[in-house]
Amino acid sequence: MKHKKKHLDFELNLIPFIDLLSTCICFLLITAVWMQVGSLNVKQAVGGQPASETEKKPTAWIYMEKDGSVTFDVKDSPALRADLRKSTVPAKAGKLDLELVNKLAADLRTVDPGLRTALIQPKPETSYEDIIDLMDTVKKAGLGDLGVVPL
Amino acid sequence: MGSAIGAQSVLNPTGKKWKRSLFADLLLTALIDAFSILVIFLLMNFSSTGEILFINKGVELPKASQADMLERNTVVRYDEGKFFIENKEMVNQDAMIQELLDTRKEWSSTHPNEEFKGILTIQADKKTKYENLNSIVLAMAHAGYGEIRFAVVTK
Hints:
The complex is a heterodimer.
Chain A: H1 15-31, E1 37-44, E2 59-64, E3 70-75, E4 86-89, H2 98-111, E5 117-121, H3 128-140, E6 145-148
Parallel strand pairs in A: 1-6, 2-5, 5-6
Antiparallel strand pairs in A: 2-3, 3-4
Helix pairs in contact in A: 2-3
Chain B: H1 4-8, H2 28-45, E1 63-64, E2 68-69, E3 74-79, E4 82-85, E5 88-90, H3 93-110, E6 119-124, H4 130-143, E7 147-154
Parallel strand pairs in B: 1-7, 3-6, 6-7
Antiparallel strand pairs in B: 3-4, 4-5
Helix pairs in contact in B: 3-4
């Protein structure tokens, strides 16, 4: 009796697979978000707790001036010398000098590693972009607990 | 005598006539490879955070590198001199406080055993002055919201 030879090669139907991939690509391209939106987490600096109940932590008050300069005033930090507690970063071509701000914040953190809180006090004319740039720079330097002070 | 090259000539073949097949073989492997790479790339970039914010044309969010993932919270939007809470226009600061209080009350009724977190997302153009955002900060302080999420574009 003659045995029929069984084919070892079989054909895979690729058309449904290509259909599925095409549909996937169309859906993903349509729903794709090219702009990654995130959020900068900030606390409201005006507290609901009375001052006597609040735990005194080293805090850097950052005052943003109209001309682009920034003044750091560190409070409740026994590790910092009195002359280092207040320092001003002058503006660079009418804008914030973020490099210098970052350096100053990092230096303050080196002297007092417990310094983690920064409260930002902008001026009414300060743009939202400048506030975010400052917060981002300060956060990068290690001051993670940020607060914004209302006018 | 016909050479091997002469037999292959298209213009004047000297050899045996060669029948051209009408069925063209399409190489699908490369196509499937390209499709798979595209699908993987698009899946990796897939993000659902874009649905949280409705950004109008002409509004540019500031950029930040230390940004966290955007979460679903009450969104307050400042756009062309007007304030919006979840796309509802607010006429003044008092209306904003009232709306925030209502939102808080609604949240407390739907989540009876949970503590109110008081988180608010602020969305505004990067050129907005702080005096305009200040109204939102004051309103949220009045309504008992303590945490702000500034909407930014991740650098």
